[in-house]
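User: Hi! I'm working on a homework problem where we have to compare a predicted structure to a textbook description. Could you give me the structure for the chain below?
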Amino acid sequence: MQTLLFVVTTIIQLYIFVLLLRVWMQWVRADFYNPFSQFVVKATKPIVTPLRRVIPAIGPIDTASVVVAFVLAIASIIFSLWATNTLPIMGSTIIPIGIILLLTYIGKLIFWMILIRAIMSWVSQGRNPIDYLLYQLTEPLMAPIRRIIPAMGGLDFSAMIVMFILIALNYLRLDVSLMIDPTLTGILYSIGVM
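Assistant: Happy to help. Predicted structure tokens:
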């Protein structure tokens, strides 16, 4: 059962990441003609396009993609509880825990994008189409920090500061979810969902 739990929750998490990437790309107005952007759009189009007729976008935020990501986060929680035979403890706290889980996925996505951008800056030096997309996605977060703390001696500390903030928010996320429902949080944390 642990193998099934791992496979299903990993697939759900990866698709949530793709959905959130689509939202983020639309929010920062990234290049949608980039090959990686086209992959994200094609992977999410079958589910998001029909929902857009019912759930309109709110400003630059693709609300339909956010709703699908939230529903998948709730589905991941329910499946995890079912797979560990703890489904009877599910209550009304699943909605706020689902929101916290979705925010966790957003933080993880940002963390990995910044880390990949930093590693690729050492290797490819901007010659890859994914480099430009990563720049478009992460620069809105790093530029304000760079204005406050400029590069010193050729070292840019903005990526480390954003990652430090994300790690601190991750601890805060755990504290808040423990206040909401310690039992559900403990189960989800022990099986690696949260």
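For your comparison, note the following. The helical segments are 2-27, 35-52, 63-83, 94-123, 129-148, 158-180, 182-190. The two ends are 18 Å apart (CA to CA). Good luck with the assignment!
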